[in-house]
Amino acid sequence: MAIAGFRLTRCLGRLSGLPAQGFRRANMSAMGATVEQFEEAKSKLSSLKKDPGNDAKLRIYALFKQATRGPCDAPKPGMLDFVNKAKWDAWNSLGSLAQEEARQRYCDLIGSLAAAEEGGSPARVAAAPATATAGGYDCLLVDTRDNITTVTFNRPAKKNAITTRMYEEIIEALGQAARDPSVITVFTGAGDYYCSGNDLSNFTKIPEGGVEQMAKDGGELLRKYVKAFIDFPKPLVALVNGPAVGISVTVMGMFELVYASESATFHTPFTQLGQSPEGCSSYTFPRIMGYGKANEMLLFNKKLTAAQACELGLVTRVFPDRSFHSEARSLLESYAKLPPDSLALSKRLIRSGEKEHLHAVNDAEVERLMERWTSEECFNAVMSFFQAKAKL
Ligand code: COA
């Protein structure tokens, strides 16, 4: 984004004036925001006083195009056409996101920008009944409606890689979801990826205490992060909209349901990076799929398709890409009407036998990783990743 700088700000400045051609009115009230809410969000956008910045404007542009025209079908602009290339990338990164979901996210985004301007709690422009909407996150979208809290990893330009800040935000969002009145909690990703795992630049920010301190801080954060999943009291669902890597995959062993679009993939390249498994996967994966198949993933870096992951039991169900969000969402809405206490207590029964053990596994995995992060094997692997990027 920095590459386009000022010019991009100017060119994206009047997104609110986008034409509404191709707007599929007939579909608008099926789910998500209604036509009226979408229109309301559009006019709210033109009344924003502050420039929300290039990243937000690109997201608004992309969601508008997706909501009104569907997946990106425009020819890719040339490398030097910076502005149009940035807009095309943003739209294209939404992949096969359903139009109704794009419309909803468009309303959510503008609602949170308007709320931020007003300095109050985010006034949701989107679908009713809105029990709560959480703003204030830099790397996540968090939204509660229809008894479902949805946490969306929201760094699509970085394939939703998890930075230190984002780990902290996810822990906070889980705490909030545990307390809010929602019945189930869902994780999904913005753009074409579900999540590309740990942001490898976390390893390049060495604090004053050196690599040992970096490993210690990282270990404590990881322990806290995984603990938040182990202790989470309500049913957890992953809506895996695209490729999932590393820690976004390993914690899935603690989810009640993993619904995947057919183009999703599952990859845990730990040994390739000189590291070792986390997220309790050293225990949950062999338990779910048996030692041999778990070893192919955790030791030998095998990437699974959604169909393969479903066959092995890591994924619960696979949906066609085009209907993924709407089909999965309507199932979740029906689940979220079930009695909340009965669901939470049943989850507790199913998981209680292994909870203590999961904490012990988490501790052991964190200890091993703290040692791995200071190893030459890990250092060399991370450096090669960034060197390869620099050469492109
Ligand atoms: N850590 C840091 N940056 C990441 C990242 C990660 N885990 N995943 C993606 N990114 C960044 C890329 O560096 C790139 O940044 P840039 O635009 O500033 O160059 C941007 O996200 C887009 O990714 P890119 O690599 O250009 O897209 P791609 O489609 O060619 O490849 C991946 C996507 C995810 C396969 C590739 O980025 C990758 O291998 N990432 C590392 C995944 C990983 O090892 N995770 C940790 C597991 S333990």
Defining key terms:
single chain, 392 residues, alpha/beta, Acyl-CoA Binding Protein, 2-enoyl-CoA Hydratase, Chain A, domain 1, 2 domains, seven-stranded mixed β-sheet, three-stranded mixed β-sheet, 14 helices, 10 strands, binds coenzyme A
Task: Describe the fold and architecture.
- Helix content is 49%, strand content 10%.
- It is α/β, with parallel strands linked by helices.
- It folds into two domains: 1-126, Acyl-CoA Binding Protein (Up-down Bundle), CATH 1.20.80.10; 136-392, Alpha-Beta Complex (2-enoyl-CoA Hydratase, Chain A, domain 1).
- Strands 1-2-3-4-5-7-10 form a seven-stranded mixed β-sheet, with helices on both faces. It has a three-stranded mixed β-sheet with strand order 6-8-9.
- Helix 3 packs antiparallel against helix 5 (99-118).
- The protein is globular and about 55 Å long.
- The chain starts with a helix and ends with a helix.
- The structure holds coenzyme A (COA).
- Coenzyme A binds next to loops.
